[in-house]
């Protein structure tokens, strides 16, 4: 009887429980044998014994780095299937050099980020956050200054999208339901592809000058660090909204504090630099800034989608079908 392939999990216990509920584990067992242990370290005899039998390594949040030592201990290993977003922190380049297949569920994790982004674009353009604060702190008998909706709303506005990443493309797709003009800055998108996306390709400066709303979806690279610096934030029109669900390093925090404190623009930030911001940081006190604690990605009930993606990916791998989330090594530097 031929040997069944073996899957080993390397991720935090909470991630295993939330991403892989029992019915998904049962589905996975239809195609592989599953080692019941979840590893957050590859040290010790138990991990060594599991790696020796592993054909597929299923990683996720809290996984240890997969490097040359791990590969030496796992002679049967064919693939790393990452049940989370980026693989940059857990997959050493040697994994690609040895010819292993690497897959990521980043596409599944991008869905809630895009949903969150669209929600805050709608709410932010309506100035919901600052108006809600005014409503909550209103003094009895004072004029109801939270009621004015002059100039608010997303309808008819110009939205600038920085980065046609997985999330960026999902946001572009969702924006098609709105009567907005969409500008895109992404140096890797051709004019023909921009046309197919229904956007106008522009430079960053032009995007800042023309956009009522700017939403950031680029990777954190040396060349994208502080892409929105003081000069470019100063190009934004009065009343503009900046949304960042990508990486905090894309925006110069000190410059953002200055321009938001002046009241010229507002911001919604799910990521910051540094992250988390220290207690008492001036951004927390600004009425036109909303900061959320990096929660746009998959959480709670949304995590199941990632588990479903990973289980389906293992099935595709073993059937020899193309992988939906295959990570190509040459594209790795340009991912989040």
From TrEMBL:
The UniProt record lists the keyword Heme: no
InterPro entries attached to this UniProt entry: D-isomer_2-hydroxyacid_DH, D-isomer_2_OHA_DH_cat_dom, D-isomer_DH_CS, D-isomer_DH_NAD-bd, NAD(P)-bd_dom_sf
Protein name per the record: Hydroxyacid dehydrogenase
Species of the source: Saccharothrix xinjiangensis
Keywords assigned: NAD, Oxidoreductase
Pfam families recorded: 2-Hacid_dh, 2-Hacid_dh_C
Family of the protein in this entry: Belongs to the D-isomer specific 2-hydroxyacid dehydrogenase family.
Signal sequence range: none
The keyword Cell inner membrane is annotated on this UniProt entry: no
Boundaries of every D-isomer specific 2-hydroxyacid dehydrogenase NAD-binding domain copy: 147-296
